[in-house]
Amino acid sequence: MTRRIFGVRTLGLLGLGLLLVGSYFGLFVAPAERYMGQVQRIMYVHVPCAWIAMVCYTAAFVFAVIGLWNGKPRWDARTTGAIEVGAVLNALLLVQGSIWARATWGVWWDWDVRLTTSLVMLLLFAGVLALRSFVDDSDRRATWTAVATIVAFVDVPLVYFCVRWWRSLHQTQSTPETVSPAMVLPLRLNAIAILLIAIWLIAQRAKLERERLRKEQVDEPARVTAGLEVTDA
Amino acid sequence: MPDGTIVGGWSYVIAAYAITAVGLAAYFWSLRRRLKQIHNED
Fold first, then answer.
1. Helix axes A73-104, A138-152, angle to 10 degrees
2. Which of A97, A110, A164, B36 is deepest in the core (most CB within 10 A)?
3. What tens digit of pLDDT does each residue of A33-85 get?
4. Which residue is closest to A212 within chain B, CA to CA?
5. Interface residue of B24, B28, B30, B38 to substitute, partner A, most A CBs within 10 Å
6. Which of B1, B6, B29, B42 has the highest number of chain A CBs within 10 A, making it the mutation to test binding with A?
7. Please, what's the b/e burial string for A69-95 (b: 16 or more CB within 10 A of its CB; e: otherwise)?
8. How do residues A125-178 score in pLDDT, each as one tens digit?
9. Neighbours of A209 (CB within 10 A)
10. Across the interface, which of B20, B31, B39 has its CB nearest the CB of A201?
11. Is residue A49 within 8 Å of A92, Cβ to Cβ?
């Protein structure tokens, strides 16, 4: 177990190092974009945060399905970890996007389809985390979390494809063929870096959830023995 | 320089990178604190 945690920590530290290198390339080596100038450098953190937030939510969806299938608590812990880390990255991408919008569109926010679906995505998954806090029974909590995660996940492909399906202020996805190689490098470095950091954080958050569950299971018999548990007559 | 080019803008870039760094660090420390707290309760 210690070795496994060490392995994940190594991934996280590697991710931090890569993020520093990628950000150096993004800030000081990549050329300024022709029209957006220096502001475009925000892309090197904004786009990786968006990609990895959606990867986290997709992982949460897969964990939720597996958890519903086999009922093992460790999948509930992993689902929670992936949702929480996804939500942190989701919040960061909204703030970064807002800063970018102010510099390029002249407004901090617009009810554009990409921005709105991204905000809805954050609210839906934050709602799943809030729902967990209302349920005391661990089995029921795991089931409700898994079902709510599957429902919330419906918004994730919508966020990705909305700029192709509907008219949007937000630009459509770029490809390496349409972007200068000097810009692709920091983008890829930071995407890998944030992915490694996310894996590290998800592992830590899942560990915390497993510890909480273990503590709940230890505390529960003690509460019943002490007569603190209220049951139906 | 073509028309419509954004001049300057470093302050926006610095703000975005700083918020990203602070956000990730704050979440990391909140996880550490919660893990320590649950271990201390044992």
1. 40
2. A97
3. 888 889 999 999 999 999 999 999 999 999 999 999 998 999 999 999 999 99
4. B38
5. B24
6. B6
7. eeeebebbbbbbbbbbbbbbbbbbbbb
8. 999 999 999 998 999 999 999 999 999 999 999 999 998 888 888 888 777 777
9. 21
10. B31
11. yes
Q: How many CB atoms lie within 10 A of CB A230?
A: 6
For residue A194, the surrounding DSSP H or E stretch is helix A181-225
The first and second tokens of residue A5, run together, are: 């945690």
Cβ-defined contact of A38 to B10 (cutoff 8 Å): yes
Write down the ipTM of this complex. Answer: 0.90
Report CB contact under 8 Å: A23, B9: no
Q: Hey, are the CB atoms on A37 and B7 less than 8 Å from each other?
A: yes
Q: Is A189 helix (H, G, I), strand (E, B) or coil?
A: helix
For tokens 């079902």, the residue is A147
Residue extents of the structural domains in chain A: 24-209
Radius of gyration of chain B (CA): 19
